[in-house]
Design a protein that fits this description.
The protein is mostly helical. About 85% of the residues lie in helices and about 0% in strands. Helix 4 packs antiparallel against helix 5.
C-alpha cells in the first residue's frame, strides 16, 4: 500500500500535474472554470468532485459523518478521506472554503449596498 501511495505522489508531482495546476490558475471566472472543467472531466468526475467539496463544506460546519453521507450520498470512505484532508497539512479544502466564504460575504455586502442605494433613490425620486 505504501508503494502505491508513493507512485501516486510521484504522479501528482509530475510536470504534467504542475502544468495542470498552472492551467487552473489561469481560469478567471466561474464560467471559464465550468468550460475548462467540462472539457477536462467526464460528467461523473465533475459530479464526484462537486460532491467532495460539498462533503468538505458540511464537515467543516460540524455535521456528523453519517449526516454528511446521508445528505450528499457520499460513501463513508469518501467522507472519511475528505475529513482527513480537511485536517491535513496541505490545507487545500480549508483554503478554498475560506475563500468561498469570503466571496459569499463580498457578494452579500454588494447586494446589501445595492438594495440600500435603490431605497435611497426611491426616496429621492
Amino acid at each position: 500500500m505504501r508503494r502505491d501511495n508513493m507512485a501516486h505522489d510521484n504522479a501528482a508531482d509530475s510536470e504534467e500535474a504542475r502544468r495542470l495546476c498552472e492551467a487552473a490558475c489561469l481560469v478567471e471566472t466561474p464560467e471559464e472554470a465550468w468550460a475548462f472543467l467540462s472539457d477536462l472531466l467526464s460528467p461523473r468526475e465533475m459530479s464526484d468532485l462537486a460532491q467532495r467539496l460539498e462533503v468538505a463544506t458540511l464537515l467543516r460546519s460540524g455535521r456528523s459523518y453519517v449526516d454528511v453521507s446521508s445528505a450528499t450520498g457520499a460513501s463513508s470512505t469518501t467522507v472519511s478521506r475528505v475529513s482527513k484532508c480537511l485536517r491535513g497539512e496541505r490545507g487545500g479544502y480549508r483554503l478554498v472554503l475560506e475563500r468561498l466564504d469570503g466571496a459569499v460575504s463580498v457578494a452579500e455586502r454588494g447586494k446589501a449596498e445595492e438594495n440600500e442605494d435603490s431605497e435611497i433613490q426611491g426616496r429621492q425620486g
